[in-house]
Here is the input.
Amino acid sequence: MKKETEAFDLSQVLGGTDDTGTSAEGRPPGQKVDLLQLAFWGCLLLSIAAASVSLARPHASGATGSILLITMASGGLVFLLWTVRGAGRFIGLFPERGAAARIANAGAPRFPWIEALDEAVLVTESGGAPVAANPAYDELAALALVTGPSENGPVTVDRLFGASPGLAAPVYRLSKAAKAGVRRRELLPPVALGPEQVPAQFEVTVSPLPRGRVLWRIRRIAGQIEATGAADLKSLYVEDAPMGFFAARPDGTITYANGYLRELLGLPESAKNIRIDDIMRPEFVKLLGRDRKSGAPGRADIQLRARDGVEIPVQAITTWSGRGADANGRTILLPSPQVLNGEGDRFALQGASRPMRADGDPMFDDAPFGAVRLEGDRVDGAIILDANRALMELSGGRATPGSRFSDLFVSDEEGQNALSTALVQAVDKPVSLRIAGQDAQYVNVFVTLNAAGRPSVAYVVDISEHRQLEQRLAHGEKMQAIGKIAGRIAHEINNMLQITMGNQEALVARHPVGDPSFDNLKAINEATVRSRDLVRGLLAYAREQTFKREVFSTTDFLTEFSILLRGVIDERITLEVNHGRDVPWIRADKSQLETAIINLVTNARDAMLSHRDGGKLVIRTSRTTGREAHAKGFDYVEDGDYLLIEVEDTGGGIPKSLQEKIFQPFFTTKEKGYGTGLGLATVFGIIKQSGGYIQPVSTAGKGTNFHIYLPALPAAEIPAPIDQAAEQKAQMRPLDLSGRGRILVIEDEAGVRDIAVSVLRSRGYEVEEAQDGEEALEIINAKPGEFDLVISDVVMPGMNGPTLIKQARVQLGHARVIFISGYAEQELAKQLDDRAVSFLPKPFSVRQLSELVKREIGTPQQEAA
Here is the structure.
């Protein structure tokens, strides 16, 4: 035994062994050293010794004695051995494998023993670099990657299954075990391979080899037709289906049962020779086979028998294919109606969104929020070990094991270190971040540490809807603030316009038509009117304008108004006005509704003419309800009856990215100088102030349809038909605007006050004036009951108009009240108890003021008469 060991060690020194387990000279390890090799080295040493003696003792070389003989013999032996062991082995004469054989077999596998395995095998370095693979692995790679053999050697396992995101986690765990030199086994989820997408399932095992190498074994456990008895290989996907499934032959043998059914009945995965009558009673077996000849799907309510004897009611849907002994039956099992009605709980207890994995945690895998297991010393550098389904959906499939956790997010704050800082702050408290690559996807990230203070688990909760609500609330508050500012600005501008308009009318009276100054005064008036309309639009957006609501029929209103609309639109555009049946009446301000419709029609006209030469504009009316609005996606419309006005055009449409901005003030898609951006903002304000809703429905390239919902007037409030002649007579404007009476004018703007006082005095009234509420209260207290009419501004420094009237209610007696203001003050009558008031919005003309005063002061006299 000792000699054999010495011989093996000598062979290692002389030749060594390669990875195939053979010596460098072609001998198996452990074989004795060849005697010819020993003779060769002995003769060589003897020849060297003889030559050395001849050189050292020249006198001895003269003799042809034994030294010369030994030298010649040694040389002959060297030649002989070179011929036999060198050229002889090269040409194959020597019985052992020679140099020619080594050259011919230079491309042979370094691990020939893996060729004998019928499963796919790959040998890699510990770092994952491939070393050798058997033909079965090459065939699998060609099927998975749809490529031929690679010139650079076999591919790695992670590349083999890299195209399937669901396999990333188990492959990563296998790679980690391979680097650690630990044996591990993973059952991969089903995967589709090849151009025909053939489904298959694999079991992968990693085992350490000597010299730091790793053996990968990939065994196919499903994917053959014989596995299930089904002709359609795609039926393999039912293994992970959240419902029961089994395949059976006509003799009752179950060839396959999926994981859900096995778990439901308590059957082990290795169970064989299971028959249908083992899991249900004979009468139910007959029900499943009754439609075998017809081939049509059969439905039956049956009861399954579990291993513990408990029967579970289910509904079975069976389909048969094939004929005779080759027929195959496939049965899907669903909860029966009695289970759904709460009469059974066994099926419900087994139900799940998907079957549990052997090493899975349902609280992790099926959590409705993102969850991820981490590894690393710091949160910002942590590596993902595993991620649940919710996080994979949130991240768009990028939360794969082995990737950096921080790569899933971006921070809204500027700076390269902002994200790292945010992730560190996410330890034990939620931090808001944004999913990388998705602008509108916001999440709360919460990281927990293990006992060693390292990141262990992170939770990612989608808060996109919450963030959108916050943004809408902030936007609404900003718009509300802008609206209040717009109202205050409009109040001051209206005062200026009132002064301009009043003085312009006074000058026109002194410079009539034909005067050289008349044209200049006319230009001032036109500019004032345009400015007034612009301010009214601003007030409509701010919902601060005065509304004079009245009850009217929309059908009559739009029929008359369409005559004006035909003059607004271009003659290249066709206008249609269609009224539905039983169109409800509404209570609204006609003039403001006209403004809203004109703005929509003008925008539609511009859209159609800018995208094509002409088009079609349709205005429709109909009765609708809040439920019908909800069905269209308008969930914010309250329940009730509504009048629906649709303004539809055939223009270019509104992109989705702009539909939320079109109602913002000063936002316009028109070229610079062609739009103020207040048109749709004005429409929005008018509709909202009328208690309604407006929403565009637009498709790019197909036009836009604005839906306007206005509250319908109840049938009990619709007025009876009136005498048109009497109404026209009542609405006739008085020709004589002079009158008598005592009037108190209260206005903090001196220019406006002077114009009003001057006009009223010129009409014959006795007028007193006050510049604020305090001064007016003193005058009223000093002269109680002497005033017939009070004209007051609503908003003034100190005491405002409504407060003044309330405090002076007794001293005023039956005096009438007219409020004037640059913006609306809603429900003034309610603030003044039962006192009747009128409202005159600024800027007003001299004639409007005179007519209203004549009407108010003349009312008591008419009633007395």
